[in-house]
Each structure stands twice: as structure tokens, then as C-alpha cells.
Amino acid sequence: MISRRDTITFSPEALAFAIGLIALNWIPLMGSKAALVYLAAMAALVFWQPQRILDEGYATAAIWVMIGWCLLSFLWSNYPSQTIRHGLQLALTASMAVAAGLRLSTTTVLRVLLVTGLILAVCQFGIGRISGSGAWLGLYNSKNQLAQFAMIPMLVGLAITLDRRGRRYLLPGVVALVAGTFLLIVADSVGAILAAMGACTAMVAIKFLNRLGPWQRLLVAGSSVLLIALIAIAVSGFFDELSQLMVRLTGKDLTLTGRTTLWQSAFDEIAKHPLLGEGFRGVWVVGNPLAERLWAEFGIADKVGFHFHNTFISNTVEIGLIGGAMQLGLFLYTLYFLVLWAIRSPSFESLFWAGYMVREVILVNSEVMFFAEFAADTVLMFMAIVVARRYQLSLRAPAPRSGIARTIGGPARFSDRFAG
């Protein structure tokens, strides 16, 4: 039986969020045209309820402090105009995530991710772009971008499949799961496949954890953590033995990107400007000696789409240990509360976000997952932070009285989805 609160209703804010997400995924192919569509959708979402903007900004102060630090770095950046421009774009990216994360229920957010995931999957099949190596590119400029997109409908579909309350979405959920898995395979990204394995393992383990006895829970939890850790290490390319195993199984050398060399270069730069960094988006700029040297060394002729192959190392080079500590703190905070929510209340909403964070834990060791301006992954990471904050507030017993508490969403408003 479908309860009143599960009835599907039209939401202009959900529609704006969906349009914005789709537009972000088209930016690699359509450039500024897709960016303008995103900005229009973002503005429609944010200004649909303009009276909430200040409260929402205060409620998510940690996000805006981090973005403010990125903008402030123009004071010491070698490319201040570049830093200001990209910093403002990051703020515009966060604006949609914060508004959607606070105004939409977690169930509505998953519905939007399901629908947009299916629409974008159809687009990937329709575009059918293939790289010189035979890997699919779809809407994107690299197979890794396609693989990272593919994991979203895959995780949404798996979360719906695991939760009996998601039965009304079961058919589209299964389609999303199959489509995402297929796109992940044809993208031919070993790191993404390993990350998907770890995320799916965590979701299944969390779902059935409460059905087990104490010792069984300990065994399953310990085994899952160990598996995820091994996958993260394999993706990082630290263990030669694991890398050689992956070569035998897949033909892919996890260390071919020269991450050790890249990381050493990054550490050398961090040592020069440890606290403040080089300035937000002030490293990979044409004319910067470090960037030019690494582009030449790794044969990057077009001088785009290259980084230090580790989220926190790469970001620390730009915004220093102070900014890096802010981002790491936000990440660990979000990981803790979203996994806690999934363990206490394993619904399709909580399982998705837990799986998403496990995916991030694995991929931050080999990719720059956040915080890039006008990127769907950045929007989802900002939303994850907001959802974690909402869940944390819901743990407090009294109903929220202040405007700020109501803005975030306390137990009186979200008890149906956040209570254990």
C-alpha cells in the first residue's frame, strides 16, 4: 500500500534540479551552451524560494567557508583572475546542490537521480562516441568520466533493488542498474570497476547487517572494510603485487599513469607553499612552469584533463594545508554520518548515499573527484554534505524551533526518512 507521503507530486524545484544535472553532464560536449542551461536551472531553483537563501547559507556555513577560502586564494595566486573566475563558478555549482539538498526530500533526490540517470544513459547510447583505444566516451572527453557517471544509476538501481520500500521503482531501478553496469564495462576503466565493486559490496553488507548476530556482524563488517581498503590500495597502485594481479586479470597496469612521479612533484610544490598553496585553479595553467613540465613529460599535447591523480593531494597543492584540511574534514564528517544513517536505517535513500561515499573513498586515491566547478560529481558531493548535516540534526530529540534548524531539516520534518 502506498502511503500519502509516497505519492508522486510535481515539484518545480525537483524539475530545475533535474535539468541542471542533465546540463552539467552535457558540458563536455556542448560547452557554454550547456553551462547556460545549468545556470538558468540553478537560478530557478535557488530563487524559487528567495526568502530561504540566507538561512540556507548559514545552515551550510562550512561549505561556504571552504569556497570562501578558495576565492580568497586569489591574493597569493600566480593567476588571480583565473582563481576568482573558477572560485565564483564553484560557488554557483554549490548553490544548486545546497538548495536542492535542503529543499527536496531524500526520496525526491533519489527519484531525480534515477530519472536523470536513465535519460543520460539513453544519451550515452545515442551519442556512441568511442576513443581510439575502443573504450566508450559517450558525452564525455574521457572513459573515466563515463565510468564515474555510470556508477550513479548503477548505485541508485542497486539501492532500490535492495529495499522493499522501493518496489514501486523496481522496474526503472533494475533498468538503471543494468544500463549503469553496461556503461561501466564498456568504459573500460579498471579503477572505476573496482570502486563499483567496493561500493556495491558495502551496500549489500549494510543492508543485511541488522539480520545477523553480533559475531556475524563483526565478521561481515570487518571483511567489508578490509575488501574496500584493498580495493583502495589497488586503485592507488601502491602494492606491486596487487598491480601485477590486475595486469594478469585485466591487462591494465595500474601504475602506468606515473602516479609516484606526479605525487612527488605535488609534494615538492606543497613544501614550497604549505599553508596557502598555489591558489585555487592556479596550477594547471598554460605558461605555469610546473604544469608545462608535467604536460611535456607525460605527453599531454592539448594541455587539458590532467591532474595529480589524488583528490586531496591535488587540492592541497592549490589551496594549501589549510584548505585541504577543510575539505578532508567535510569529507570525513559526511562519510561518518551517511554510513551511520545507512547502518541504523537501511533504506534505498541511505544505502545509495553510503555506497556513493564508499565509491568516493576508493576513487579519491586515483582521481580528482571534487571540488571542480560545473561538475556533476561536485554537485553530488556537496549534496552528500548537506544530507549528512540533515541526518546529524535529525538525531537531536527536540523538534527544531529556530529558522536555521527548520531550514536544515530537523526530526519534526524528516523523521520518516531519518529515524532509525
Please tell me about this protein's structure.
With 420 residues, the chain is mainly α. It is built from 18 helices and no strands. The chain has one domain (11-418). 71% of the residues lie in helices and 0% in strands. Helix 1 (12-30) runs antiparallel to helix 2 (32-46). The chain is globular, with a radius of gyration of 21 Å.
Tertiary shape:
globular
Strand content: under 5%
List SSEs in N-to-C order.
HHHHHHHHHHHHHHHHHH
The average pLDDT value, as a whole number, equals 86
Strand tally is: 0
Number of helices: 18
Number of domains: 1
Keywords for this entry:
mainly alpha; 420 residues; disordered C terminus; disordered N terminus
List the helices and strands and how they pair.
Elements: H1 12-30, H2 32-46, H3 53-59, H4 61-72, H5 80-103, H6 106-127, H7 143-162, H8 170-187, H9 190-209, H10 214-236, H11 240-250, H12 259-272, H13 289-297, H14 311-344, H15 348-363, H16 376-394, H17 403-408, H18 411-418
Give a short synopsis of this structure.
This protein is an all-alpha fold. Helices cover 71% and strands 0% of the residues.
